[in-house]
């Protein structure tokens, strides 16, 4: 009961204390505070609204900037695509233009017309012979007998004299060379027209090649354009020669690739077998700071060695010996006291592996290797195999075959025409290549002596076709039909054919001059042959320009 009364009293007291009428002053301040709060709330609301507007503006600006960037990116992308399309069309247009231009030039070259309005000489194969008075069999036989056949005996006597002197000179050269440091010179070999019996133009020049090898313990390691490595088109037909030790592996010893300890030695390469420094490699006729044989260094060495050798044996001979060309290693001339002279070429070469293909740095009186890529590039000559092929085929031909006669007549006519109108891009090597191709293509019986006129026309027409196409392929390179009896290296048979007329594609002025000279030779052929058939003036046998191999 008392607890209940206490609870009721507590409630009454609490109600009286909290009644609003008991505290009028404090309750009177409530409206003023509410207005301030409301004012502050309004100000806060306004500031929030302004902040929202600011943020909305910033968002709008960002969206505008993003849209501008996206639009700019689209414009750049479109411009790139447009540029790519434009570049593609430009390139395509240039290619089409170049093709049209090349076709136009080839068409014009195939349709050259003389100033007199004559018909096209090159449009149809054999049309260049239209209107040409070709000599008959009797005239050709008389011309060959009177003008060419008589030179055979002179060539034989000159070969014998030159070979004997060259052997003596090389023997003296070996005696003056240091066997431990200088190159080892082998016996010389005769190549070219003088040794294939088709040289007709004077002065006669014997071409001899002299293989040489490095001193022990070194050897030559050769590399050709068809040995697997890529060579530019202008270096096809060339190779390089590396001087290395005889016991050096082509792939290199592991001691060159692995760092051995100080107390470890390679059993294959001792300290005594370390490769010579660069200064001594230059003594081995290498290009500076390389191991590659330098053709210019070889030329200087050979000229000095020949000079020393001649000084040793000059007292035995009653003539003088001199260099006729300083830019050729062995272009020599013998001068007799009577005033007569004999010229011959003694050219150093390097054997390709175990074959009769040789690297040769200089072709005297020839344009075959006129522009060497560098002095470490050597041209390959197949002259020994060419001589063997002619000898091999000659055994299967009828008696007194006409293949050599055709080449001699063609060589004489071309040389005479060049002496009248100037040199052309054709060389005697090109003419011999034509004969080699026809020897392989035609049956043996077609080369009987009574077919001289027909085979000469075949050679001229074949040459005309090659000039028209600007293609005359090397006989051996890329020729899979080379007789196996020759033992010709298979690597060259499997190589891509080498176009000897490639310079005509690059130099149209030389090509035009060559074709003009060829046509002029055809027109003058009958007159030249008739002139030398009726009589052979002595004046015409002198002052004749030199021929190439």
TrEMBL record:
Endpoints of the signal sequence: 1-15
Gene3D superfamilies in the record: 1.10.1410.40, 3.30.460.90
Topology in membrane: Single-pass type I membrane protein
Coiled-coil intervals, chain numbering: 38-82
Cellular location(s): Cell membrane; Nucleus outer membrane
Mab-21-like HhH/H2TH-like domain span: 403-477
Gene Ontology CC annotations of this record: nuclear outer membrane; plasma membrane
Superkingdom as given in the UniProt entry: Eukaryota
GO molecular function: protein kinase inhibitor activity
InterPro entries linked: ITPRIP-like (IPR026250), Mab-21_HhH/H2TH-like (IPR046906), MAB21L/cGLR (IPR024810)
Pfam families to which the protein is assigned, alphabetical: Mab-21_C (PF20266)
Keyword list, A-Z: Cell membrane, Coiled coil, Glycoprotein, Membrane, Nucleus, Signal, Transmembrane, Transmembrane helix
PANTHER family per UniProt: CELL FATE DETERMINING PROTEIN MAB21-RELATED, INOSITOL 1,4,5-TRISPHOSPHATE RECEPTOR-INTERACTING PROTEIN
Family note: Belongs to the ITPRIP family.
Known role: Enhances Ca(2+)-mediated inhibition of inositol 1,4,5-triphosphate receptor (ITPR) Ca(2+) release.
Name recorded for this polypeptide: Inositol 1,4,5-trisphosphate receptor-interacting protein
């Amino acid at each position: 009961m008392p607890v209940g009364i206490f609870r009721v009293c507590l409630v009454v007291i609490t109600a009286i204390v909290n009644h609003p009428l008991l505290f009028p002053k404090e309750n009177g301040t409530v409206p003023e505070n509410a207005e301030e709060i409301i004012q502050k709330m309004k100000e806060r609301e306004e500031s929030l609204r302004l902040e929202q507007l600011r943020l909305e503006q910033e968002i709008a600006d960002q969206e505008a900037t993003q849209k501008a960037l996206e639009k700019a990116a689209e414009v750049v992308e479109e411009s790139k695509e447009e540029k790519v399309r434009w570049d593609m069309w430009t390139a395509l247009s240039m290619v089409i233009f170049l093709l049209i231009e090349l076709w136009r030039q080839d068409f014009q070259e195939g349709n050259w017309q003389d100033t007199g309005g004559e018909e096209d000489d090159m449009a149809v194969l054999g049309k260049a012979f239209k209107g040409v008075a070709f000599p008959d069999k009797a005239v050709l036989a008389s011309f060959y007998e009177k003008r060419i056949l008589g030179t055979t005996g002179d060539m034989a006597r000159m070969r014998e004299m030159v070979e004997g002197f060259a052997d003596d000179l090389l023997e003296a050269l070996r005696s003056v060379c240091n066997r431990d440091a200088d190159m080892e010179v082998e016996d010389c070999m005769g190549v070219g027209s003088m040794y294939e019996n088709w040289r007709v133009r004077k002065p006669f020049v014997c071409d001899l090649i002299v293989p040489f090898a490095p001193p022990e313990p070194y050897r030559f390691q050769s590399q050709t354009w068809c040995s697997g490595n890529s060579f530019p088109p202008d270096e096809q037909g060339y190779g390089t020669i590396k001087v290395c030790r005889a016991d050096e592996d082509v792939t290199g010893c592991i001691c060159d690739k692995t760092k051995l300890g100080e107390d470890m030695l390679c059993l294959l390469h001792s300290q005594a077998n370390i490769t010579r420094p660069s200064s001594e490699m230059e003594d081995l006729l290498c290009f500076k700071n390389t191991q590659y044989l330098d053709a210019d260094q070889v030329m200087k060495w050979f000229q000095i060695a020949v000079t020393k050798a001649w000084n040793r044996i000059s007292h035995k001979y009653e003539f003088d010996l001199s260099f006729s060309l300083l830019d050729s290693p062995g272009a020599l001339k013998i001068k007799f006291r009577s005033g007569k002279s004999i010229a011959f070429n003694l050219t150093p070469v390097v054997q390709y592996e175990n074959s009769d293909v040789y690297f040769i740095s200089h072709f005297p009186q020839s344009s075959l290797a006129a522009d060497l890529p560098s002095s470490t590039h050597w041209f390959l000559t197949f002259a020994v195999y060419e001589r063997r092929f002619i000898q091999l085929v000659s055994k299967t031909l009828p008696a007194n075959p006409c293949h050599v006669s055709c080449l001699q007549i063609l060589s004489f006519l071309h040389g005479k025409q060049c002496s009248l109108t100037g040199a052309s891009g054709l060389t005697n090597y090109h003419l011999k290549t034509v004969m080699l191709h026809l020897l392989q293509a035609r049956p043996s019986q077609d080369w009987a002596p009574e077919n001289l006129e027909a085979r000469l026309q075949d050679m001229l027409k074949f040459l005309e076709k090659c000039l028209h196409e600007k293609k005359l392929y090397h006989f051996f390179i890329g020729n899979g039909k080379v007789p196996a009896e020759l033992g010709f290296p298979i690597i060259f048979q499997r190589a891509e054919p080498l176009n000897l007329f490639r310079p005509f594609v690059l130099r149209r002025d030389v090509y035009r001059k060559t074709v003009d000279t060829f046509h002029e030779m055809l027109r003058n052929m009958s007159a030249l042959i008739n002139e030398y058939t009726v009589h052979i003036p002595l004046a015409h046998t002198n002052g004749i320009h030199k021929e190439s191999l």
